[in-house]
Design a protein that fits this description.
With 263 residues, this protein is of the alpha/beta class. It has a single domain, classed as Rossmann fold (3-Layer(aba) Sandwich). The chain is built from eleven helices and five strands; from the N terminus they run H-H-H-E-H-H-E-H-E-H-H-E-H-E-H-H. Helix 1 crosses helix 3 and helix 10 packs across helix 11. The longest helix is centred in the N-terminal third of the chain and has 18 residues.
Length: 263
């Protein structure tokens, strides 16, 4: 009986999703036919994050999302919290998907924290208590580089983060992302005490996460590519060499968006 109710609920979600898909040009509904399978995470584990949030909103009454990481996730450098990549992404989701119009992306970014420190109970406890449907983990490797955390300890902490949240939040989608590109700055030398550059952490973690088969977005490289296309110099996007300014955060939000919505 429970199984029958479950499939009836999924069918209802499929019908509702047809009514709440983002509109295309000219205000017309998307021509794509949405089937129940396209919103059922058991049948389509690779579905876009946005579709999964819609599925959760329609089947549980509320979609929940959270982000964790360092100060560039917290939003340091922005003129206002509404200008951060988290807030801009929240606004985009609310606008594009009517069923997500009340979505709130909880912010668990902590200034100065490495990937090891975002494993601390003060960070993980509130995230788990909030039970997000989608959790974005910014790898915090700006701080790992500046604070001389070894690559081995960096990889181990990412593995622990994935294991912790996978067990505590079995229905949550977990997405790792890199931080933004940086320039020389007062927070640390270009080459740290371990002889490593910031980009060694970017590409090392990308390879590690890729080998694990976990979802990952290289925000660093995609922001640089977008800047090149538009003739924007990296220093123009940063407040102090590390933290994005409003322009930097807007570019971050722009590059992450298609990864959350694309089929």
């Amino acid at each position: 009986m429970k199984q029958v109710k479950f499939f009836l609920l999924l069918a209802a979600a499929g019908v509702l999703l047809l009514l709440f898909r983002p509109e295309g040009k000219g205000g017309k509904a998307s021509a794509d036919v949405v089937k129940v399978e396209s919103v059922d995470p058991l049948k389509n584990p690779g579905q876009p994050v946005a579709d999964y949030l819609v599925f959760r909103a329609l089947t549980t009454g509320e979609a929940r999302m959270a982000v964790t990481g360092s100060s560039v996730t917290k939003g340091s450098g922005a003129s206002n919290q509404s200008k951060t990549w988290r807030a801009l992404t929240q606004a985009h989701l609310r606008t594009a998907y009517p069923s997500l119009k009340t979505l709130k992306i909880e912010n668990h970014g902590h200034s100065g924290y490495t990937s090891v420190r975002i494993l601390e109970d003060e960070v993980t406890g509130p995230i788990i208590a909030g039970r997000p449907d989608v959790l974005i983990i910014e790898t915090s490797v700006i701080n790992n580089h500046n604070k001389n955390v070894s690559l081995e300890d960096t990889y181990a902490s990412l593995e622990q983060l994935h294991a912790l949240y996978s067990e505590a939040l079995p229905e949550a989608r977990i997405l790792f992302i890199s931080p933004n590109p940086i320039t020389e700055n007062k927070f640390g030398p270009p080459v740290n005490a371990l002889g490593l550059r910031f980009t060694d952490y970017i590409y090392g973690t990308q390879t590690f996460i890729g080998e694990k088969g976990w979802a990952y977005i290289n925000i660093h490289d995609e922001m640089l590519s977008l800047m090149e296309q538009r003739g924007i110099e990296l220093p123009e996007t940063l407040k102090d060499g590390i933290h994005p300014n409003d322009l930097g955060y807007s570019l971050w939000a722009e590059v992450i968006w298609p990864h959350l919505t694309a089929k």
